Amino acid sequence: MIHSVKESVADKFEHDGYLVVRKLAKINLLRSMNHLVHKALNPLQGPAEYEADVGYPGAPISRDGIGGHTPRRLLHAYSRDEIFRRWAAAPSIVDYLRQLTGQPDHMLSQCHHNCVMCKHPGFSSSTAWHQDMRYWSFDKPDLISVWLALGSERQRNGALWIIPGSHKLSLGRGRFDANLFLRSELRENQELFNQAIMIELEPGDTLFFHCRLFHAAGTNESKDVKLATVFTYHTLQNKPIPGTRSNQFPSIPV
Questions:
Q1: What whole-number distance in Å separates Cα of residue 142 and Cα of residue 247?
Q2: pLDDT digit of tens for each residue in the chain (254 aa)?
Q3: If you write DSSP's letter for every residue of the chain in order, what string do you get?
Q4: How far is CA 213 from the centre of its chain?
Q5: Which residues have CB under 8 Å from 146's CB, separation 6+?
């Protein structure tokens, strides 16, 4: 989806729950990020989340098993290097956030996402249909995540699938399993899955998506690790709730 200046990105985001901006990040930034990420992966520079820790389908059984030390995310990306901080607070990012929320001031959450997604071949897991807001605690369920593709994203290497407009849905608790993933055996959920589309991205393409948008992803069947940076933002007025995981680290103005 490429939007002309005459089109209202705010209206489209309100309707669809997501927005793709092509080539928002420049090639030099992508090269620098890729270099830093590969350096942080070999040898692994923590903190990191491991595939074995989440226990999703396709993940290693435990850290002691084969592939058990495969990282899923490099955590705390904002504090890792200045290049991530520059991207997270880039004027182009802030401008889109202002258009999408209609608010002038935004904060970057250090508690959610704030990471480099690392989908490795062989040991990557698939992620069932979910909303990120299921484990976030804010005054309002209105946050925006910004996903920057550091390489091409296709079905073969586990690109994201989304259900357009699903951020507006209000579903009963029975539609979800114990971990708040949509139950795949329910007919009403299957009808929802049939509306899904895959988001194919090229290096530098950026996906803005609402925290209530249902999304999922498959495993990486290619030969190369798939990398993407992800940061999550909230308006200044939308505060994290004290005493929750969302308030563990202070948000940063951008």
A1: 16
A2: 444 444 689 999 999 999 999 999 999 999 999 999 999 999 999 999 999 988 888 888 888 888 888 999 999 999 999 999 999 999 999 999 999 999 999 999 999 999 999 999 988 889 999 999 999 999 999 999 999 999 999 999 999 999 999 999 999 999 999 999 999 999 999 999 999 999 999 999 999 999 999 999 999 999 999 999 999 999 999 999 999 999 999 999 99
A3: ----TTS-HHHHHHHHSEEEETT-S-HHHHHHHHHHHHHHHTTB-SSEEEHHHH--TTS-SSTTSTTTT-EEEEE-HHHH-HHHHHHHT-HHHHHHHHHHHS-S-EEE-SSSS-EEEEE-TTT---EEEE-GGGG--BSSS--EEEEEESS-B-GGGT-EEE-TTGGG----GGGB-TTSPBPTT-HHHHHHHTT-EE--B-TT-EEEEETT--EEE----SSS-EEEEEEEEEETTSPBPTTSGGGSS--EE-
A4: 11
A5: 93, 206, 207, 208, 230, 231, 232, 233
Q: Which two tokens stand for residue 167?
A: 């951020």
Q: Is the pTM of this model over 0.70?
A: yes
Instruction: For residue 146, give the nearest of 160, 156, 136 by alpha carbon.
Output: 160
